[in-house]
Amino acid sequence: MDSDFGIPRELSPLQQLRSQYHPELPPCLQGTTVRVELGDGTTVAKAADAHIIARAFPHSLGQPLAHFLRATAKVPDAQIITEHPAKRVGIVFSGRQAPGGHNVVWGLYEALKVHNAKNTLLGFLGGSEGLFAQKTLEITDDVLQTYKNQGGFDLLGRTKDQIRTTEQVNAALKACTDLKLDGLVIIGGVTSNTDAAHLAEFFAEAKCPTKVVGVPVTINGDLKNQFVEANVGFDTTCKVNSQLISNICTDALSAEKYYYFVRLMGRKHSHVALECTLQSHPNMVILGEEVTASKLTIFDITKQICDAVQARAEQDKNHGVILIPEGLVESIPELYALLKEIHGLLKEGVHTDNISSQLSPWSSALFEFLPPFIKKQLLLHPESDDSAQLSQIETEKLLAYLVETEMNKRLKEGTYKGKKFNAICHFFGYQARGSLPSKFDCDYAYVLGHVCYHILAAGLNGYMATVTNLKCPVNKWKCGAAPISAMMTVKRWSQNSGSTSIGRPVIHPAAVDLKGKAYDLLRQNAHKFLMEDMYRNPGPVQYDGPGADAKAVSLCVEDQDYMGRIKKLQEYLDQVRTIVRPGCSQDVLKAALSVMSSVTDVLTTISSSSTSGQQYA
Amino acid sequence: MDSDFGIPRELSPLQQLRSQYHPELPPCLQGTTVRVELGDGTTVAKAADAHIIARAFPHSLGQPLAHFLRATAKVPDAQIITEHPAKRVGIVFSGRQAPGGHNVVWGLYEALKVHNAKNTLLGFLGGSEGLFAQKTLEITDDVLQTYKNQGGFDLLGRTKDQIRTTEQVNAALKACTDLKLDGLVIIGGVTSNTDAAHLAEFFAEAKCPTKVVGVPVTINGDLKNQFVEANVGFDTTCKVNSQLISNICTDALSAEKYYYFVRLMGRKHSHVALECTLQSHPNMVILGEEVTASKLTIFDITKQICDAVQARAEQDKNHGVILIPEGLVESIPELYALLKEIHGLLKEGVHTDNISSQLSPWSSALFEFLPPFIKKQLLLHPESDDSAQLSQIETEKLLAYLVETEMNKRLKEGTYKGKKFNAICHFFGYQARGSLPSKFDCDYAYVLGHVCYHILAAGLNGYMATVTNLKCPVNKWKCGAAPISAMMTVKRWSQNSGSTSIGRPVIHPAAVDLKGKAYDLLRQNAHKFLMEDMYRNPGPVQYDGPGADAKAVSLCVEDQDYMGRIKKLQEYLDQVRTIVRPGCSQDVLKAALSVMSSVTDVLTTISSSSTSGQQYA
């Protein structure tokens, strides 16, 4: 890491304009009084995991949700925090860069300064490595000047997205102790927030007073659960990708001779690909979740695309745009099995040259069938989270190659009578990830930064900052915090010996919900998108006028507000308690008992079946 | 080609807003009177080419420049055209798609309708092939509705960028005759406009009344000469590319572990790469023109990059962004020679498998040294203009591969002590080419469309529409037309036999001027860009507020206005003529003779040396 982090720099006219923009705060965060209402203790999504998670999180499991309320809110149980002793807080970019990350720092800084001018915010330079090495930069107005509402993580930089090994957590503990931190805010995705929860637990166990807070910042949009509606950076990334995809659709339609295969960064799941499809209406998207659900092989997918190309050619359309999530390769069963075998052999230290000969016969046959460029990419060492190096595996080229081979075969056999199939491949990721953040990401990140302060002021440890009701305007946003451990699940694998191996509790990345409204919207339109070239161009991200306040389609169609509903339920329960106070009539009590008994029965039945059947993560 | 061209479609909110935008006209084109001033007859840029060009263009060479003037302009010689008999005009997208092309159609349509409601504009469906096949769509308000200020060429589509063979020009003649066209407007770059000039000559010879007009529309920005300052589409393309490049710079600076090698579409010359460098300040750019001027080999370039990587590593910077124009491969002498040999063998019908063995020893050695992926790409058949398939040759990957190999060698030898070199490669082209056009491109294209009408109203044939003074606001723009033949030059090659082979007169794409101000600006900043990470993020193209009216840096720094200066000179000459009228004093006459004699001497000397030394095209 170099010493250039956080230096002032020359801004373009648009960057200057953006640097002047000041996001508004929702009413609940305005003013200098923090009002926090602690709800019921949380449970975990899968009942079966409860005891394993409890063992890993003795200090934090079952902690209540926190809701931050406006100063004038009439909630009898809300705790009002009026004393704000000077705090020292550290903040670190742990996950991969995502547009908007800088605004978390800014929001937290402003909240700190509003509540006590003596509060101090230290940014760790160079991400987690800067945390371990205690390299800090004190955040000031001057430092923030040219980074407000700007993209990237270059204010502080980032390195590894892991705070996990004994050495690492000890270094983090030492840093927080040496620097006398009251709070440590960790910015990142599923991995970083998982590590934040474990670190919080480790700190609590070690009686370290530093409270750890996580913030959901990842372009992948896969840190989604009951408590978290969206991730900082997803909105901008999807908008920039959609801008480029729709440009390519326009290009395809202008010359009518190419099929564009566009792979999209977004890790294992297909949130980015789904959202971009809903924004720009390309002809086709292959979602990893669909492939998994239908157990499609690479040959099934190839055939699906070829049949689409053929159907379009029959309507004299010899062009098209097909989106491919980068995680697709791990969703295709036989490729996933092959990758697992390769990774296993790599772990055993087998040299890449010798791997092919040591694969199982089936995997070996598949491997030998693949073109050389993809073989080389499959042989790359896996990432820190054991997944393949998805950004390096050119699945779009593999599919284009297989489709071309098949179309040429059909052409020769006379079953396909269209023009020669021509593909051009793209990978969109890095060029969106560093983008100037959209208004939504600027606002969301800034508010999350404020929420971090309120969490620390309330003395909570191991929580993630949450903002819900995001599809509404900022003045309707609800702010809160949820224990990170309540978002965790546990994976189980059958071992060869017949026994079951149990994983560490982690936040698993959420898959695209094939029963959700966003996916439903895609399915309703998929045939029209495929055949009718309904290309839609959202254009470049705007900061004024139409489109400037646009939000992700998948955010707006989903009917989320889980946190709001939890609050509503509590209100009903409170009302019942008020109505059925001791002294009420026998009839009222009888009616209440009868109704509540059946409510309890129904919920018990539903929740036992949902925990066995449903995968939240 | 399918029947979907020109159909109305659903627009996004931003597209809708843009479809409502109406560009303004410069004062000279306002109103319904056309005033045209014809200047002196034109000459060609290189005197030595004059007789060859004259032979090819007996009807059009030496035609005067045309200036369109405001109705109230007091120019005695200006011809005023007040009669506007109904005209039938055809328009065709001949070149590759470029943002803004639709506005040429719109501008021409509006000019036609303003001057005579009975005027008809026919768009050829499917580009040049639609012209040959006489497939037309009558342009109406309804047809234009969802295409105003929108990107792509999908209103009419395009196919081949050639109207050149006997068969093709005869088909074009037949189409114009059958459809009774008074004018044919051809939209495209150097190739299309060259063909337009030859077609105009062919029509004149065949006594076909259809006048042919060319419009400079190409993302490459290489149709630049004394008369043409800029090309429609270049501005948008450079802005979108710069947006993405600067996002990648931000990304590089956030994680500090990658070198990004970005190849940019733009054909043989490096205008796009130069402009994007001036807009986004990446660490390095390798301009083809510099490579040609310094005769750098691929190994020189590799060393240059490696030395830069090493110098940056010494300052603890292990990241960077390097731009590479797609035409670079043809600027590197030994690769160009290799390509020429390969193309020669392909033309002789040698199968790609046997080419390697038939290369000259030197080329064969180079070919065998190259990695397999690039070998395969070099063996692709050349394009219609005999250049390599530049978009398919991944020069950025070749350079990244060579740099990595060299850096690993230096690391092993201990001469380089930095981190392991990691490269990520990109090719930006298609995703910019289909973009929503910038305000500048919308305005410029719309005005050019109007100019086309004025050219036809003045009865001119073989002219290109021109707008100059473009760096000033629209109300200062000057509109005119120049004979396309005056932009042509001729290439000469020494044959093996010692004789000289002479090419057909064409508009050669203009190289980046290494004596120009834009290049000078780059040179002044190159070292700072390399070492100091002065990344600048112009952001996504805006349509309102700061940056919305930005123009290309290379357009703004150059001091062009050739057409304005030609007019100014004519004014001086006229003044001299007025002052030195018969009857003036002997002294005045003597003084005039003496001064004009020395002026003539100086100009004769300069222009003979400039024609021998300078390459305009």
UniProtKB/TrEMBL annotation, chains A, B:
Its cofactor is Mg(2+). Coiled coil: none annotated. This is Pyrophosphate--fructose 6-phosphate 1-phosphotransferase subunit alpha. Regulatory subunit of pyrophosphate--fructose 6-phosphate 1-phosphotransferase. Pfam families: PFK. Allosterically activated by fructose 2,6-bisphosphate. Pathway: Carbohydrate degradation; glycolysis; D-glyceraldehyde 3-phosphate and glycerone phosphate from D-glucose: step 3/4. Residues 88-454 form the Phosphofructokinase domain. InterPro entries: ATP_PFK (IPR022953), PfpB_PPi_PFK (IPR011183), Phosphofructokinase_dom (IPR000023), PKF_sf (IPR035966). Tetramer of two alpha (regulatory) and two beta (catalytic) chains. It is found in: Cytoplasm. Keywords: Allosteric enzyme, Cytoplasm, Glycolysis, Kinase, Magnesium, Metal-binding, Transferase. It comes from the Eukaryota.
